[in-house]
Every structure is written in structure tokens, then in C-alpha cells.
Automatic annotation (TrEMBL):
Domain Ig-like stretches: 25-141, 146-252, 258-328, 351-429, 436-523
Species classification: Eukaryota, Metazoa, Chordata, Craniata, Vertebrata
Locations listed in the record: Membrane
GO cellular component: plasma membrane
Cross-referenced SUPFAM superfamilies: Immunoglobulin (SSF48726)
Protein name (record): Cell surface glycoprotein MUC18 isoform X1
Signal peptide range: 1-25
Native source organism of the sequence: Austrofundulus limnaeus (Annual killifish)
Length: 623
């Protein structure tokens, strides 16, 4: 068995070997079995021979070359030579294209400008008559490179729902020899025919020129992932001694696949939506090509909303537009469940409602709670202001123990922290009602004024309703109101009174709620120039008292000195004695001065209060 295998392998080796060895008679002949050349090149077919019978040296050697077309039994002679002549046969395909060179061991057939039709078998025949004869055969193989392959992809989309493989691309390679092969690739992987998935239809054309052109069509069942795949064809062709390849361009396919999921989302505005915004909702599916979409609201699934393409525009939304929106591919048969959904929330802030409304009257000392509320879809923050000053936070404002200062406009500002563009405000005017309240603490003002002067008396009162002020003045006919002002629950009145004698003035501020009175008492001082500083009777009385006091003091001092001297305890130095007496004396002087000048000093002090260096007709204002 092993021996048989070995024999077979040996035979195969001999067959594959380029050299064919023949022994016919006594001639050894060596030729190449095949010779491979490019079209248009020259081919040189060698034929080596040796007469083995040394005794029978060949005197006469006849060399002939024959050619035979593949599959044709008839041979044709193209060359003859013997010792005397060399003949290239006329009227053959080779008459003008061959030369033969021969010597004692070898003959060579040279064919110029090799044609496709030269793909034939060439025979060399050596005849030495008695020395023997032999024949050898060489198959001439001709090669021509094909042109670069041309690929054409299918431009229209291919649906993954097609049941049979669809044409994806076609590839053509022209003018090759021998026949080139086409291999299809998807990405980098060669494709093999697979029934129901991959078909390759190949058409081979033999051109009149003898070349082969090959056209191949790829039919392929596309899947969604093929939208990112590329396809190309590879041409393989033989050249002398090798196999070469060329690749075509790559082509893409447009894959159509149904929509399986749909997403609905808000394109604009960014963030929270408030009333008045224009809202754009975009519907996006995973299908290719994207189908048209229909939009609806959850509560009315059958009422299609008017949309432009895949966008639903809701101009100037209100809270009524809040809700669930849906979109689905138009005419989605069998995919009824494919839809996108989203919740739209339109936020709002209603105008603030303040209680009490507009304005509210309070009595002095009363308490009041004001509230401010604004309906909103979001959490709100409320701050109360009086003018620009913040007076409270939250939706209630407590006003306690009202005074006239409590009066004013209270504004509550409502804001939405999460949506700053939403804000509103409301206000209430608080009016504190009560009887007049005079400005200044004293109920009664006492003053003195030099007779003949003018005094301004001022009276200011707060109250609501605004108080009115009336004056009643006793002791002077000569008076008039020089100022009367009313504003913001405040009345101010001033009268100018000429002091002729003691004057008593009453300022009565009154309104519906009551009255308050302020009294002024002016003591008229007679003019200094027309009267003596003090009366003689009064003056002599004072002097007598002073003299008595001095005498008493001297007596006491005398007795003290005497006592100390007698005891001898007092040294003759004068210093201590002097200090004491000096002190006493000073003190006594002051007492005297004060007593004597009391009246005048009072007048001076009063003048200083009312103004410096006033003439007798100067006016004085008393509040
Ligand atoms: C054959 O050889 C001769 C002599 O060398 C040369 O003149 C002629 O051109 C050759 N013919 C061909 C076809 O090569
Ligand atoms: C072409 O394909 C055939 C069949 O598969 C094969 O025998 C031949 O060698 C191939 N030729 C080239 C040039 O690849
Ligand atoms: C094929 O598709 C890829 C990716 O989609 C792209 O980068 C490439 O340019 C396409 N090529 C052609 C020839 O269309
Ligand atoms: C002040 O005026 C009011 C209203 O005119 C009056 O009722 C009241 O008696 C007056 N008071 C005095 C002290 O005159
Ligand atoms: C009193 O009031 C009048 C009018 O306002 C004013 O002209 C005058 O100067 C005032 N007198 C004093 C002493 O303030």
C-alpha cells in the first residue's frame, strides 16, 4: 500500500515537473512543458537534444517545429531545416513572426509579439535517421492584465424587511486573459455564497479580441448594522509565475429599517415653561428614513395636532396646555405600540391678592393682619415693603399697636425662585385714624417777652382725618396766622402775636375723633429803658440785711481770734488766718451780687434763649 502511494506521488512529481523526458529511438530530448509570457512579449522555446548512440553518430539531422491549437488534433508545420536548408513555412500564422536558431545540441524557436491565439502547443521534432528521432511538446501560455475593476453600488435604500437578498452592488472587470475571478467583500471579510442570504451572479464574456470580461452582481440580505458597512470587489488574475489581485472602490448602502422606538422631547424653551412661552416639542424615531409623525394629547389620542414635520409648535401656552403629549410614526402598521410620550408642565403665577383690599383704616393702637396670596404652580417667596424698606416676609404681615407712623402703602412682592421671570405684587394702603396728636411734649408753654415785641407761636398736629387748628388768644388784639399747612395727616399753624400785656393763647387741634389743646402763656415784661432797675424800698431792705450779716460775721471772727491768742496755740504767722477769711469774704460777695442782680440776670437769660442782641421790636418764636 505504502509503496503504491509512493509510486503515485513520484508520478505526480514527474508530471508537475517542467521537464519532460522522452526517449524515442536513441535521441534524448529536453523541453519545457509550459512557457508563460505576457501578451506582446517575445517567447523563446528551447529544445535540447542529444544522440545517445555514440557508434551511430548522426551525419544528417532534420529539425521541424509544429503547432497545434488546443482541442484540435491537426498539427501544422511552421519550420523545417536539414543540413542544407532552413525553411520558415509560408502562409502560416507564424510565417513573419518566428526565427529558429539551432546548433549541435539545441534548437530554439523565437516567436515575436506573442498573441492571445499563440496559446497553443509547440512541438519540436528531431530526426537523425538511423541515429534515431524524438519529439518534445511545450505549451505556450499567454497572459494579459485586466483593466481595474469598476463597482457600482445601489443608490436607493435597501429595506431590511425584504425577504430575499437584494442587489447591493455590481462589479465588472474587463479585458483580462486568462479569465479573472471576482471575490466580494463586506468590510474586510470575503463573502461566500449562502442560500437566502448571499448570492453572486457571475457573467463571463469572451470579447471578440479574445479577452475575457467578467461581471458579478452581489445580492445580499441587509441588516440594520450594514448602514455602517462597506462593500467592494476584489479581482484576482494570473500573471507569469504568480497570481495578482486588484481591489475596487468601496461602496456604502443606504439601509432602510422600520421605526421601533420613538422619543418625544422639548426642544425649546430650555428649562421650565411658563405661560406665554412658545413651546417646541420634537419627535425622534430610530427608523430610516425617518417617517412622518403625528402628534396628539393623551386625553384625545384620536385628535391629531397640527405639526410641521417632526416638530410640534405650541404658541403662547397657558396652564390648559399642561399634560401628556404623544407622537407616533404615521401609518405605523404592526407597530401600534411605537410612540413617544412626555409630560409638559406650564407654570404660572396669578396676580397677588392682598387682604384687606386697596386701603384699610385702622384706629390708633389697633392691630391688623394683612395677607398676600398669589396662586402659582411653583413655590413662591413673599416679601413686604413699605416704600423701599422691607417690613416683613411670608404671606402675612402683622401690624401691631398702630401709630400715625404705621400709615402708608404696604406692597407685597411675590417671586418664584425657580423661575425668576415669574413675579407679581399687590399693595394695601393703611390709614391710621385717630384724634389729633400735637407735636412736642409740653402741654403748656410758659414764656416771658418784652412788651411790644412780636412772638411767633407754632402748633403742629398729626391725626386722621387731618386735624384743623383753631386759635383763641386772650390779651392781645394784634395777632394773625402767618402759616397754615396741611399735608399727610399733619397740620401746621403759626400765629404771630404782639405782646402788649400778658397773653394766653390756646391752640385747639381737632378732628372727628377728638381735640387736643396746647396752651401758651406769655408774661409781658415792661421795657428796661422806661423803668428804674429796682425800687428804693426793696433795695434799702436788702442793704440792711447785708450789713447785719457782716456785723455778725465780724463779731464771730473777733471772738475766735481772741480765744486762739489767749490759749497761745496760734503762732504769730498770718497765712492760715488769711486764707479762711479770704474764702469767707469771697463767698459773701457772690451772695450779695446774686441778690442784687437777680432780676436783670433773668432778663438776660431769657434774651439769650430767644436770640442774641435783639432790639426792642424783635420778634420771638415760641414752640
Ligand atoms: C530572423 O533573423 C534574421 C537574422 O538574424 C533577422 O534579420 C530577422 O529580422 C529575424 N526575423 C524575425 C521575425 O525575428
Ligand atoms: C479562479 O477561480 C477558479 C475556481 O475557484 C480557480 O481554479 C482559479 O485558480 C482562480 N483563478 C485565479 C486567477 O484566482
Ligand atoms: C460610507 O459611510 C461611511 C460612514 O457612514 C462614510 O464615512 C463614508 O464616507 C461613506 N462612503 C461612501 C463612499 O459613501
Ligand atoms: C376745641 O375745638 C373743638 C371743636 O371745635 C371743641 O369741641 C372743643 O370744645 C374745643 N376745645 C377747647 C378747649 O376749646
Ligand atoms: C415769624 O413768622 C413769620 C412768618 O413766617 C416770619 O417772617 C418771621 O421771621 C418769624 N419771626 C420769628 C422771630 O421767627
Amino acid at each position: 500500500m505504502a509503496f503504491l502511494l509512493l509510486r503515485r506521488a513520484l508520478l505526480l512529481f514527474l508530471h508537475l515537473c517542467l521537464l519532460t523526458w522522452s526517449a524515442w529511438g536513441k535521441v534524448e530530448l529536453t523541453v519545457n512543458e509550459n512557457l508563460e509570457v505576457y501578451l506582446g512579449d517575445s517567447a523563446e522555446i528551447p529544445c535540447h537534444y542529444r544522440f545517445t548512440d555514440a557508434k551511430n553518430e548522426a551525419r544528417f539531422v532534420m529539425i521541424q517545429w509544429f503547432v497545434r491549437s488546443a482541442g484540435n488534433r491537426a498539427r501544422m508545420r511552421i519550420f523545417y531545416s536539414d543540413g542544407t536548408q532552413q525553411i520558415i513555412d509560408r502562409n502560416t500564422d507564424y510565417s513573419g513572426r518566428i526565427n529558429v536558431t539551432s546548433d549541435q545540441k539545441e534548437t530554439r524557436l523565437l516567436i515575436q509579439n506573442v498573441q492571445l491565439s499563440d496559446e497553443r502547443e509547440f512541438f519540436c521534432q528531431i530526426n537523425g535517421l538511423a541515429a534515431g528521432n524524438a519529439e518534445g511538446k511545450t505549451h505556450l501560455r499567454v497572459f494579459a492584465r485586466p483593466e481595474a475593476p469598476v463597482i457600482e453600488g445601489i443608490l436607493t435604500g435597501i429595506s431590511v424587511t425584504n425577504t430575499a437578498p437584494s442587489k447591493v452592488a455590481s462589479c465588472e472587470v474587463r479585458n483580462g486573459f486568462p479569465k479573472p475571478n471576482i471575490t466580494w467583500y463586506r468590510n474586510k471579510t470575503p463573502l461566500m455564497p449562502k442560500p437566502g442570504y448571499v448570492n453572486m451572479l457571475t457573467l463571463v464574456t469572451r470579447e471578440s479580441s479574445g479577452f475575457y470580461s467578467v461581471q458579478s452582481t452581489l445580492e445580499y440580505k441587509v441588516v440594520k448594522e450594514d448602514q455602517d458597512s462597506f462593500f467592494f470587489c476584489e479581482v484576482s488574475f494570473s500573471v507569469p509565475g504568480a497570481v495578482r489581485t486588484m481591489d475596487s472602490h468601496r461602496v456604502n448602502v443606504t439601509v432602510h429599517y422600520p421605526t421601533t422606538t420613538v422619543e418625544l422631547r422639548k426642544d425649546s424653551p430650555q428649562g421650565l415653561v411658563q405661560e406665554g412661552d412658545t413651546v417646541e416639542l420634537r419627535c425622534q424615531g430610530d427608523g430610516n428614513p425617518p417617517p412622518p409623525f403625528v402628534f396628539s394629547r393623551e386625553q384625545e389620542p384620536d385628535a391629531d395636532l397640527e405639526s410641521s414635520g417632526d416638530v410640534l409648535v405650541l404658541p403662547s401656552v397657558s396652564r390648559k396646555d399642561s399634560g401628556v403629549y404623544q407622537c407616533r410614526p404615521l401609518g405605523a402598521v404592526g407597530h401600534a405600540e411605537v410612540k413617544g410620550e412626555m409630560q409638559l408642565n406650564v407654570h404660572y403665577l396669578d396676580p397677588a391678592v392682598v387682604v384687606p383690599k386697596d386701603s384699610e383704616v385702622m384706629f390708633k393702637g389697633e392691630d391688623l393682619v394683612a395677607t398676600c396670596n398669589a396662586l402659582s404652580s411653583l413655590a413662591t417667596t413673599i416679601v413686604w415693603y413699605k416704600d423701599t424698606e422691607q417690613v416683613g416676609q411670608g404671606n402675612t404681615l402683622h401690624l401691631q399697636d398702630a401709630t400715625y407712623e404705621t400709615s402708608g402703602v404696604y406692597t407685597c412682592k411675590v417671586t418664584v425662585p425657580s423661575l425668576p421671570s415669574l413675579h407679581t405684587s399687590g399693595s394695601v394702603h393703611i390709614i391710621v385714624q385717630g384724634g389729633p396728636q400735637l407735636v412736642g411734649v409740653e402741654e403748656e408753654v410758659q414764656l416771658e417777652e418784652v412788651a411790644g415785641r412780636m412772638v411767633n407761636l407754632s402748633c403742629e398736629a398729626k391725626g386722621h382725618p387731618t386735624p384743623s387748628i383753631s386759635w383763641s388768644i386772650v390779651g392781645s388784639q394784634n395777632w394773625q396766622e402767618v402759616l397754615s399747612k396741611e399735608n399727610d395727616d399733619m397740620t401746621h399753624s403759626m400765629v404771630s402775636v404782639r405782646v402788649t400785656s400778658d397773653v394766653s393763647a390756646l391752640c385747639n387741634a381737632s378732628n372727628d375723633m377728638g381735640a387736643e389743646v396746647k396752651a401758651f402763656r406769655i408774661k409781658a415784661i415792661p421795657r428796661v429803658t422806661t423803668t428804674s432797675p429796682f425800687s428804693p424800698v426793696e433795695g434799702s431792705g436788702v442793704i440792711i440785711v447785708v450789713i447785719i450779716l457782716c456785723l455778725l460775721l465780724l463779731a464771730v471772727l473777733g471772738s475766735v481770734f481772741y480765744f486762739l491768742h489767749k490759749k497761745g496755740k496760734l503762732p504769730c504767722g498770718r497765712s492760715g488766718k488769711q486764707e479762711i477769711s479770704k474764702e469767707k469774704t469771697t463767698k459773701d460777695d457772690i451772695v450779695v451780687e446774686m441778690k442784687t442782680n437777680t432780676k436783670n440776670e433773668d432778663a438776660v437769660l431769657l434774651k439769650a434763649v430767644n436770640g442774641e442782641k435783639k432790639g426792642p421790636n424783635d420778634q420771638v418764636t415760641v414752640v
